[in-house]
């Protein structure tokens, strides 16, 4: 399985890898060396924390490199009247009786709490290609679904300031 990502997603991941290898890795290595000198490693909490931070950095680098290696780079196709990637969409959730504005983004930049919804999520995939005024069924699972109505579509573009997700 691959992730569909934009050229900006790839660029942001490459920048993070570069930062982690060139700046962060040497700092974490120096901290590990410094804390190792505190003595007994079995009871050295600072050393264990420095080791954990170094492993976490190496793990993130491997994760990003794998994402780049397996990604399918997509072009952003825009349609004047349909929901597309990076559009802001004002929806009315019938079940919650509430309006909410969301932005459709790639999986790498999703953050539902801030209104950034992946195009591959149940809501994002249900909205893709739909038009203003459409009533859309969002299927979350076999036993859970709800309807939303598209109130407004504001055309967007790939926003380089939107950060990629961490772990």
Structure description:
The two termini are 19 Å apart. 37% of the residues lie in helices and 22% in strands. 19% of the residues are buried. It has a five-stranded mixed beta sheet. Strands 1-2 form a two-stranded parallel sheet. A hairpin with a 5-residue loop joins strand 6 and strand 7. By secondary structure, it is α/β, with parallel strands linked by helices.
Which blocks of ≥5 consecutive residues have pLDDT under 50? none
How many runs of DSSP E, i.e. beta strands? 7
Structural class estimated from helices and strands: alpha/beta
Helix content: 25-40%
Helix and strand succession? EHHEEEEHEE
Strand share of the residues?
A: 15-25%
- Discrete helix count: 3
Largest sheet: 5 strands, mixed
| Overall outline | elongated
Overall radius of gyration: 21 Å
Distance N terminus to C terminus? 19 Å
Strand order of the largest sheet: 5-4-3-7-6
Look at the structure and give the mean pLDDT.
Answer: 92
